[in-house]
Amino acid sequence: MKSNITMKDIADKLGVSSVTVSKALNDKEGVSESLKLQIKKIAGEMGYRYNSAAKSIKEGLSYNVGVMIPQRFTGMNSSFYLRVYQQISLHLDHYGYFGILNILSNEDEDQLNFPRVYSENKVDGIIILGQVSKEYIQTVQNMNMPKLFLDFYDEHAEVDSIIQDNFYGAYELTNYLIRLGHRDIAYVGNIYSTSSIQDRFLGYYKSLLEHGLAFQERLLLNDRDERGRYIDIQLPERMPTAFVCNCDQVAYNLYERLTEAGYSVPADCSVVGFDNDVYATLVSPHLTTVEVDIDQMARTAVKFMMEKLESPGRRNGRVLVQGKIVFRDSVKRLEANN
Amino acid sequence: MKSNITMKDIADKLGVSSVTVSKALNDKEGVSESLKLQIKKIAGEMGYRYNSAAKSIKEGLSYNVGVMIPQRFTGMNSSFYLRVYQQISLHLDHYGYFGILNILSNEDEDQLNFPRVYSENKVDGIIILGQVSKEYIQTVQNMNMPKLFLDFYDEHAEVDSIIQDNFYGAYELTNYLIRLGHRDIAYVGNIYSTSSIQDRFLGYYKSLLEHGLAFQERLLLNDRDERGRYIDIQLPERMPTAFVCNCDQVAYNLYERLTEAGYSVPADCSVVGFDNDVYATLVSPHLTTVEVDIDQMARTAVKFMMEKLESPGRRNGRVLVQGKIVFRDSVKRLEANN
DNA sequence: CTGAAAGCGCTTACAG
DNA sequence: CTGAAAGCGCTTACAG
């Protein structure tokens, strides 16, 4: 399968030099218009394909970017990162780059091995998509090429990161509920479980504070045990008018719980979620929720990476990408508030 | 970011030639053991990284395989192909290869453009993942490198393909129902909608035939209109004891319909699905269904590709990958049949 | 065991 | 406008 037609072959066919062919095919100065046209025509006929390896070796650039996803985020039910990767791939294309997916195996993560894309110089930069261990972060820092953390950050690492704005999303969502007249609003989630649940809680909390609403313990409902397994949600004795759930799946669970207890959404109480995944449209009525702007995350990551490739010293720090509220039918405007 | 350490740098540091360094680093014959060790040590210290572009240019091999997914299969809710890609990527790794994802845009498909991975010689072979247009299949055939169709095939194209065995999966599932004593079994799906719905129907049909059970029109329930939108499933007047649904999502829809009508699964009637996606475990009781063996598909695709890379003439034809039944609690053994 | 020479395909000065 | 020369980093014969 190495029927490789080279510039030399085209040059020989036309009795010119390969330098001239190179100039013609790259639309560079120094070839007469007619020769250029002729060369391009012959190239097409001969099925010539550019050899990017030769370019790579000259420029020391592979025109690839590695996207590394830790293995544990790649299970059956977690296609989120794959979708992010897909968008990254699409945006890289605009810059003439390609994305190489690299699943970081648990072993490689434990043994602090460099990924093969790095040790074989297959990529010009690397995007780490999804939290890796503290120790591996150090390994990443030892890699001598532009790098970027996506969807997580490390306070000590000198690595730029792009994360979704969990805090602001929950803040906006809660503001929205308050604007519609809700005053007694619960938060559903184990705030000691993950940092995103905690950050979302904080956004909810800030909204309450800003509106002079007192937070009370009874308004914090647990959704999972310390190992992350969902538990039955205990509804408070005096029911709030609205629930902010830390994610759509928990909202789904809450719906079931409410139905059992004889409450109807949104007539008796309103519910909002987070993520806009399958669960958001699996419940009836469909859930008002926050959608992570995957495209924006990918676009930003690629932009930053390209900038770093241009000027390696470039820093962007910790950048937040805001989600957008998807308004559906799980929230009711309270009469009280006109 | 081109602080590239080369073999020459290592050689200079030790006062040897780069040829010797090359041999040492590649564990080739012709270097004394002690020198080899020393070279490897220095290489490590200097942070040397192999330049795979140089290898590529020598061998005419990129050690990359392209995976092309038509844009229309990459929406929000279709992560199936991304998961396949992920597995391909994993298996390629075993062979020292990398996978480059290439989303085929609708425009490129319409205009029959070669993908950039091809025209820039970025890959040694290409896997087309998901049905492309008749016209584009021709374009694929014009590509002068090993290629493979995955999850679809074309009767006229001289291209090997790997597809899931829809027919056999439904056949087995129906056999299972019959073995448990079911005799009156319905199929849910619009058999004119897609070829996989049709093939699954045929598997169901064959099972009936083999067991001497008569198929009747009343046993074929429609699930979607000609544009693919789900419609309300009409339950037959005389209820069957079991339903074979063409996919899990439709089984999910059927559950709702059955619940409305006052039937309970599996007490009153049994239900099976296909795909083993989220919907399978969203219903209660969880659904017995067929899981596509993504790993097997990916593994086979990579194996075939590697063989083609070895010997380009190699043909494998149309290969079917069988799914596996996932037994859960949506099926009841009928008393009648001990 | 060790290394000088040539070459993979292309591009970048530079000379004509 | 056109092209000979050198070089990118590595490997493959081949000579010593």
From TrEMBL, chains A, B:
Q: Which species does the entry assign this protein to?
A: Paenibacillus methanolicus
Q: Which residues form the HTH lacI-type domain?
A: 5-59
Tell me if Repressor is a UniProt keyword of this record: yes
Q: State one molecular function term (GO).
A: DNA-binding transcription factor activity
* Signal sequence region: none
Q: Which InterPro entries match?
A: HTH_LacI, LacI/GalR-like_sensor, Lambda_DNA-bd_dom_sf, Peripla_BP_I
Q: Which named protein is this? A: LacI family transcriptional regulator
The record ties this protein, via PANTHER family, to: HTH-TYPE TRANSCRIPTIONAL REPRESSOR PURR-RELATED, LACI-RELATED TRANSCRIPTIONAL REPRESSOR
Q: Sorted alphabetically, which keywords does the UniProt record give?
A: DNA-binding, Repressor, Transcription, Transcription regulation
